[in-house]
Design goal:
The protein has about 250 residues and is α+β, with helices and mostly antiparallel strands. The chain has two domains: about 160 residues, no CATH class; about 50 residues, no CATH class. The protein contains ten helices and nine strands. A three-stranded antiparallel beta sheet has the order 7-8-9, with no helix packed on it. The chain has a two-stranded antiparallel ribbon with strand order 1-6. Strands 2-3 form a two-stranded antiparallel ribbon.
């Protein structure tokens, strides 16, 4: 959705579809994961027929979680401690979403329990519920820890699997790919899109302070002392630096 909204393809970004991957064993055998279902099934079956049979159930369960979480990624979480009408309505909408009877078959007590459990468990524990072959579990676990500081035993790592199943390339859901030219091509395309909408990029100018008045941010101060004012401030710093370095303690 972001890709389309920013028209990144128009600004030069090309995504090469990911065709598959493989994990090698010392004895010369390997497990290969393909886009083709039958090839993947046969690849798993050479290690465990039981695991091959479980693979469809695994994929179905993960995709179910994708359908649950995907709409929530675009929702602003309500403040459960607030009595503001907006937050109260947000909690109501949040609860109504989980109680809805839709294509998911509805989320009853058991489904909500399973969902919360999935979001908080380790990928190791999750894969243990489906597979017995170590090479299959190790290979699939890679998708849950790549790009993170987590390990397969880390709580919450099972959830990261969803981001690989929620991916989309050229309208194909469940697919993902590589940016032609490397990761830098993504930021180049984003910069081009931003500039085409009259945006200005100021490089080499660290932000030292976010200006706040009456509990609302209204601008920022650069290292050279310049001040920039805006209706909305978005920080791409980590949480620690955002709130402990560039936001004053009194705020």
């Amino acid at each position: 959705e972001i890709f389309r909204d920013l028209e990144l393809s128009k600004h030069g970004l090309q995504i090469i579809p990911y065709e598959g991957s493989a994990s090698m064993l010392d004895d010369g055998r390997f497990y290969a994961h393909y886009q083709d279902h039958d090839l993947t099934y046969r690849s798993i079956a050479q290690f465990s027929k039981k695991d091959a049979e479980a693979y469809d159930r695994f994929g179905k369960d993960v995709m179910r979680q994708c359908k649950i979480i995907k709409p929530l990624l675009k929702m602003t979480p309500p403040d459960p401690t607030s009595f503001k009408p907006k937050d109260i309505m947000g909690l109501f909408e949040f609860a109504k979403y989980f109680a809805a009877k839709d294509e998911l078959g509805g989320l009853g007590e058991k489904e909500i329990y399973d969902t919360i459990r999935f979001w908080t468990m380790s990928v190791r524990d999750y894969l243990e519920e489906y597979f017995e072959s170590d090479i299959v579990k190790v290979h699939l676990a890679g998708s849950a820890i790549i790009g993170t500081a987590l390990g397969p035993y880390s709580p919450g790592s099972a959830y990261v699997l969803l981001h690989h199943y929620m991916g989309e390339v050229d309208g194909t859901v469940g697919a993902w790919g590589y940016s032609r030219g490397g990761m830098g091509s993504i930021t180049k395309a984003m910069a081009s899109s931003f500039k085409s909408n009259n945006g200005e990029i100021i490089a080499g100018s660290p932000v030292t302070k976010i200006l706040i008045k009456n509990n609302k941010s209204y601008g920022l101060v650069l290292e050279n002392g310049d001040e920039i004012y805006a209706d909305k401030i978005v920080s791409n710093l980590d949480v620690k630096r955002t709130f402990l370095k560039v936001v004053e303690e009194k705020e």
